[in-house]
Amino acid sequence: MKYGGDGGVDDTGVALYQSPCGGKACTGVGQRVLTSVLHFDDTRNMETKDMIAALAALAQESRLAIFRLLVEAGPAGMPVGAIAEKLGIANATLSFHLKELTHAGLTVATPQGRSIIYSARFETMNDLISYLTENCCAGSSCSPPIAVCAPDCAPKSAMTQRKNS
Question: Over the stretch 6-18, which tens digit does the pLDDT of each residue have?
């Protein structure tokens, strides 16, 4: 660990201020300070935390049903009222669950006039699937290959939606 000079970073990635003790290590407080530029030394740890948040959000029956419905809806998403009606969830409860899914990075809210359209974040879903299957087959390529959802599907027409209901 280096104190003194013009500061720098120690071996754990912690930024150091210039020592007020003439270049020697002080016994006082305040020499080691985290900066906003340095995050975590182990970026894999941050990825793991993101994946845990996504899995935790999906580990609840209503949120899993909401997310699956939004995946089915595709990139066009669904208005909050339609989600509530389709799943029979009260608006206040639905709002809480959508907040949790959005906080975990699984959904995105888009204002559209007086309503809010929620859609699944397919990139996050695919990242989660990739993370879970990263070491599948001991690192060799799997057969069949693991599917990735490419949400370039066109939204269903109103006629098709009514017909399938």
Answer: 455 455 444 444 4
